[in-house]
Amino acid sequence: MNFFSHLKFELGELRFVVQKTEDMEERVIDFEALQKVLLGGIGYYFYNNIFEISSSRHCFL
Questions:
Q1: How far is Cα 22 from Cα 61, in angstroms, rounded to an integer?
Q2: Is residue 46 within 8 Å of residue 29, measured between CB atoms?
Q3: Residue 3: which of 25, 32, 35, 27 has the closest Cα?
């Protein structure tokens, strides 16, 4: 199981637990924030790389 699959699984487990504690609620908030930051950073990285690749290809045309 890769990191993002594990993070998604852990969030799912915590969201649907029957007896929620304050610690569990805080953990869900922390995991959701971590997931947004990581996925946003990866999306930004790929967007920049695709932009750089497409820009460099146009230079050769």
A1: 59
A2: no
A3: 35
